[in-house]
Amino acid sequence: MLKTELVNPKNYIFGSTAAIITNISLIVGLETARSGKGPILGGLLTIALADNISDSLGIHMYKETEGATARLTVLATVLNFTARLLISLSFIAIVLLCSAPRAVPAAVVWGLVLIAGGSFWIARRNRENVLVETVKHLLVALVVILLSHAVGHLIAVYF
Questions:
Q1: Distances (CA, A) of 88 to 27, 64, 129
Q2: Of the candidates 26, 27, 25, 9, the residue with the CA atom closest to the CA atom of residue 119
Q3: Over 70: is that where the pLDDT of 26 sits?
């Protein structure tokens, strides 16, 4: 049963998708607001720690409501946190390696590649139409990115 949990996509996908979209949105929104590299890195580090811990606690409590054993609950929590942390660290690396304006397209492309890869994997696993599922997930991510850009623009104009 423990080995099954190690490959259970529920322990990775929820947290990974949230981390990808949250990190991209933060980078896009803060760069559009012309916040600079420091605030972007501060936001990403906050996501890497506080948001990841709170999300992992949510997974932990969910597993408890399912009646999972303590061992499986802790494993799901650790796997979720680790997946989210690694994703957050990849976006932090992008911001550290690129100038703030160049980090935006790099982060967007990286995030969309990750979402497309996850969508492909899930669709194949569930025997669904890979193209339909991937496009559907990418469209949702793009809507969030565009909303983050709009909010960043409003902040830049009015504050």
A1: 11, 26, 29
A2: 9
A3: yes
Burial class of residue 142 (count of CB atoms within 10 Å of its CB; 0-12, 13-18, 19+)? middle
According to the model, what pLDDT value does residue 76 have? 86
Ordered by start, the domain boundaries in the chain are 2-158
User: Each residue of 53-68: pLDDT tens digit?
Assistant: 999 999 899 989 999 8
Q: Which one, of 32, 16, 21, 12, lies nearest residue 138 by Cα?
A: 21
pLDDT score, position 10: 64
Please name the residue that has the structure tokens 């559009």.
Answer: 32
Per-residue model confidence (pLDDT) at position 8:
64
Residues sharing a CB contact under 8 Å with residue 137, sequence separation 6 or more, in sequence order: 17, 115, 116, 118, 119
Both tokens of 2, joined, read 């423990």
Residues 6+ apart with CB under 8 A from 144: 21, 24, 25
